[in-house]
Amino acid sequence: MHHHGSAYSSNDAWLAATTPEVGIIQVGNGNSYGHPTSSALGRLHAHGVSTYWNETGAGATPDPTWDTVANGTIVVQADPAPARRTP
Question: Which of 35, 3, 1 is nearest to 18 (CA)?
Fold first, then answer.
């Protein structure tokens, strides 16, 4: 997600245009910036985005309904799109 989940990142227009299903938030436990913010997470959750964090960070508390803290490496595996058939 944009800028570690800062207050004005991942805005509603972008979320509506891209319709992400999951988001990765890279934050550091020792940062002083307060990322991810509750406002960014609220927008993500309102658009149905589940998030994965590498650490807890110094911002909002993760909501276990939407947010997973991996405490380390996050591995993403995507299913390939089905092959298109031409008529």
Answer: 1
Residue 24 in contact with residue 74, Cβ under 8 Å?
yes
Residue 34 to residues 37, 58, 63, 80, Cα–Cα distance (Å):
6, 5, 16, 36
Q: Which of 4-8, 13-17, 47-51 has the lowest mean pLDDT?
A: 4-8
- Indicate the pTM of the whole model: 0.83
Six-digit token string for 3: 């800028």
CA dist 16 → 11, 12, 31, 50 (Å)? 9, 6, 29, 15
Residue type, 68: T
- Answer whether 45's CB lies under 8 Å from 63's CB: yes
